[in-house]
Amino acid sequence: MGVLMDVMERIRQQVEGNPIVLYMKGSPDFPQCGFSQRAVQALRGCGAQFQYVDVLQDPEIRQNLPRYANWPTFPQLYVKGELIGGCDIMMELYQSGELQKLVKEAA
Amino acid sequence: MKVKDGIERKLAAGIADLHHLEVVNESDRHRVAPGSESHFKLVLVAEAFEGLGLLARHRMINALLADELAGGVHALAIHAYTRAEWGERTGQAPMSPPCLGGGRSAAD
Q: Which residue of A has its CA nearest to B31?
């Protein structure tokens, strides 16, 4: 139980302590999954500064993040502590111009 | 039964007024064994999505397919529209991205 509480607290601190956090596979320069790559491209297309967490380097977060906000897959984008969505939602929001607004307001 | 058939059956049963459903097995674009059913693209058009944000639409679909996601299904590309939105898109859903080979595990 202690370990689970610790990892959930760690995630909470990451998403609440940073305006924009992307949980992804790989790094922004070397993404390891096409969905994560698209997510990075969308954020960069908005000119957004963002923190990232490579879930491949952190098995504990990879295993437990799906429970944090009831979202089963990666990538996951959090803005001001709130889950925005995965790759498909990010692309929809990017194409409609809403992602640009979201990240500008968060910066 | 094939995983694809199960996904189709559950979505058709679980979403009211499903007007259009495509379940595409895209596993052959990823680094998995031939014949795998691990990566799917879903295109759904239903009035049930009216008034729901994107998160809520995806959550509805993820919940219906929780067993599959906990099992062998590794990725779902989800495109969920109302009939009006689908009309505006002239019946086209976005293409899925390519695999970059990373980090296959049961945890996803």
A: A33
